[in-house]
Write a structure and sequence with these properties.
With 340 residues, this protein is α/β, with parallel strands linked by helices. It contains twelve helices and eleven strands. Bound molecules: 5'-O-[(R)-(carboxyoxy)(hydroxy)phosphoryl]adenosine (KG4) and zinc ion.
């Protein structure tokens, strides 16, 4: 059974082919970073236009890499939100047209469910129930995943998403977009104790707040003023990156520890773009080892946006007969599961 996955939720055009729901035959991601970089962030209109140009070539490449054609595809899983509406429209429009033309089922997949189930593409997969931290550019939430399609959102960010905070700190340091990978690399060269930044633990809740941390970094940078010249090479920039990353990772690890204790669950996943972060991966692994918890991390390429995770999340829906029709419309705001 071949399932074609499509994700155009943000600034990457992606298509993937899975065999029998989990064997990844291809996963093509066409990045738009070069287009948006000079603006310091994603320009939605440019993103949609680029998706239109890239959707066919990316799907063709995914099919060719899997050694099949559209005629062999049994179902199409497409991300219908949350995301940038113009970007989502391109993927959904394409998927609807292809499903209609080939008379094959169409499956709508929430992008966040894709991130949660990205670990199912690895050899070692979690069993339900598990706790899931989704840390991306647009979201930071802890879910209790009880089964396919059954998610309870225990907490979420009240302001910035974790990835958004990485991107903003990078921008403040004059280091460009996307900031996560740059900060990750720079932080490894700096002293995480150089600056003491606020950590909002919000003890009575599983929610997050990163705006105080970001404002503290802004104040530090404004006081220094030297970063504008040779940002990458200054000790100051390395120390800010390391201190910021340490405070972010401290909060994410601690909150997951609380969720584990509070819910008595012994399995967890960490996914989304920020899950590619080296420090976060190693600190989560340390915590899991200490607490005797099973930790499931997608490989780095499956942390950031990709269509294989959409196909992986689409497969159980397909098996359950949860299909969509031609009335499918994308939604910029599309919460996942119920609030817990
Ligand atoms: O999941 P994703 O590709 O897109 C969204 O659904 O938002 O996540 C993108 C985010 C960006 O904010 C990016 O800076 C961040 O993930 N990111 C990282 C790393 N790689 C990507 N953040 C920290 N460390 C990284 N290595
Ligand atoms: Zn994402």
């Amino acid at each position: 059974m071949y399932i074609l996955g499509i994700d155009t939720s943000c600034d990457d055009t992606s298509a993937a082919v899975l065999r029998d729901g989990s064997e990844m035959l291809s996963n093509i991601v066409s990045s738009q970073t070069a287009i948006h970089q000079k603006y310091g962030g994603i320009v939605p209109e440019l993103a949609s236009r680029r998706h239109i140009e890239m959707i066919w070539p990316v799907v063709d490449e995914a099919l060719a890499a899997a050694g099949i054609t559209l005629d062999n595809v049994d179902a199409i899983a497409v991300c219908n939100g949350p995301g940038l509406i113009g970007s989502l429209l391109v993927g959904c429009g394409f998927a609807k047209a292809a499903a209609y033309a080939k008379k094959i089922p169409l499956i709508a997949v929430n992008h966040l469910e894709g991130h949660i189930l990205s670990t199912f593409l690895e050899d070692k997969r979690p069993e339900f129930p598990f706790l899931s931290l989704v840390v991306s550019g647009g979201h930071t939430s802890i879910y209790l995943a009880e089964g396919f399609g059954r998610y309870i959102e225990l907490g979420r960010t009240r302001d910035d998403a974790a990835g958004e905070a990485f991107d903003k700190v990078s921008k403040l340091l004059g280091l460009g977009y996307p900031g996560g990978p740059v900060i990750d690399r720079l932080a490894s060269l700096g002293n995480p104790k150089a600056f003491s930044l606020p950590r909002a633990y919000l003890p009575d809740s599983y929610d997050f707040s990163f705006s105080g941390m970001k404002t503290a970094v802004r104040n530090l940078i404004q006081k220094d003023g030297s970063h504008e010249k040779e940002a990458e090479t200054t000790e100051f920039a390395k120390n800010v990156a390391a201190s910021f990353q340490a405070s972010m990772v401290d909060v994410l690890v601690r909150k997951m520890e609380w969720a584990i204790e509070g819910k008595g669950i012994t399995r967890m996943t960490v996914s989304g773009g920020v899950a590619a972060n080296n420090e976060l991966r190693s600190r989560m692994a340390e915590m899991a080892a200490q607490k005797n918890i099973e930790l499931y991390l997608p490989s780095r390429g499956l942390c950031t946006d990709n269509a294989a995770m959409i196909a992986a999340a689409g497969y159980p829906r397909f098996m359950a007969g949860e299909l969509s029709g031609m009335e499918l419309n994308p939604k910029a705001y599309l919460p996942l599961g119920v609030q817990g």
